[in-house]
């Protein structure tokens, strides 16, 4: 049975060069899996991206850092946040 990926979005065309050895292996894999060479490449790219994200521990929350731009406030807000939130400690 032939596996066909149903794209959720329009695909983007990319053009690249590969080594002859990679081309040979790509053809073999596509033939064994009975899929197009492009599908083997997409599967490999998906796998590589997942591995790299895990390896690099990419945190989606990093994208919010700095979104507020320049704001006024204490320069030591990160280090002294308890003091700013709860006030001075009583003895």
Topology:
Elements: H1 20-33, H2 37-56, H3 81-86
Helix pairs in contact: 1-2
List the keywords.
mainly alpha, 3 helices, 44% helix
What does this structure look like?
The chain is mainly α and 91 residues long. α1 packs across α2. The radius of gyration is 25 Å and the shape is rod-shaped. The N and C termini lie far apart (75 Å). The mean pLDDT is 84.
Which term fits the overall shape? rod-shaped
- Mean pLDDT figure: 84
Derived from helix and strand composition plus strand pairing, the structural class reads mainly alpha
Give the tally of β-strands: 0
Helix share, percent:
40-55%
Compact description:
The chain is mostly helical. Helix content is 44%, strand content 0%.
């Amino acid at each position: 049975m032939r596996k066909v990926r149903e794209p959720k979005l329009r695909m983007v065309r990319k053009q690249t060069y590969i080594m002859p050895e990679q081309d040979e292996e790509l053809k073999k894999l596509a033939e064994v899996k009975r899929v197009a060479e492009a599908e083997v490449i997409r599967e490999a790219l998906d796998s590589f991206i997942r591995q790299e994200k895990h390896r690099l521990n990419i945190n989606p929350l990093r994208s919010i850092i700095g979104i507020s731009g320049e704001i006024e406030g204490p320069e030591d807000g990160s280090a002294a946040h308890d003091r700013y939130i709860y006030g001075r400690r009583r003895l």
